[in-house]
Amino acid sequence: MENRYGKLASRVYHLDKPVGRSFGDIEFYQDRLKCCSGPILEPAVGNGRVYIPLLEAGFHIEGFDASDDMLDYCRSESETRNLSPTLSCQTFSEFRSTTVFDAIIMPAGSFQLVTQVDAARELLRRFYDHLVPGGRLILDIDNMKGLMETSGTMRRWQHSERELLTLTGSPPEIDYVHQTSLSILRYEHWKDGALVATEIDLFHLRWWGINELTLALKDAGFHNVSVSGDYRTGKPLTNEDLVFSFEAQRPL
Q1: How many CA atoms lie within 13 A of 191 on its CB side?
Q2: How far apart are CA 27 and CA 100, in angstroms?
Q3: What CA–CA distance (Å, rounded) separates 166 from 154?
Q4: What is the rounded distance in angstroms from the CA atom of residue 24 to the CA atom of residue 247?
Q5: Residue 85 near residue 66, CB atoms below 8 Å
Q6: Percent of the chain at pLDDT above 90?
């Protein structure tokens, strides 16, 4: 299945990117959201890596994800911190809410999981409709250079003396016409040297040009679109930036 984050994938993600691990994004979003007094939404909330630190900081934030396994980690990690998360299991295409938000955030390139252009544009319009006048959408995309230069990988996590988790990724198949990359990810769980579980996921991403996404945001109704590089607000963009962060506002 594609971009599903099943049981093994979610376990590996949680080991590799535990709650609070920052790539500069947690501090960036805390700073960009500091003026928000109303509700905030994080689609594709995952295990709560970013969500839980924002909840701990006092933000009124809720989230959704298509993976029940990822949400289980988010709920469990919230409970250990005596937090009460507001979470739901929804896909991007199913997303609906009666709440209108001060801000919607998508860290870590989650927007690129939507690989069909029409579906991505529709999602931007739905986000627009779920923002208060003056509300902001803030989302990250990866530099396409990094996506195209990725090679096959083999990684491992020693979960205990007896347990080992491994992830093997194929070199991505690049579709230059549709601006997508597709990798086959094989997750394996080993115990006492024997393979006890395996899981195959198709990891599919779409890359966007800076001007292309800016125009898509404007077409969805947003204005005041700005872009920052590597989580430094206002930093001029360079080819070496790993991440581009877009901020767009619904007009008052």
Answers
A1: 4
A2: 24
A3: 7
A4: 16
A5: no
A6: 90
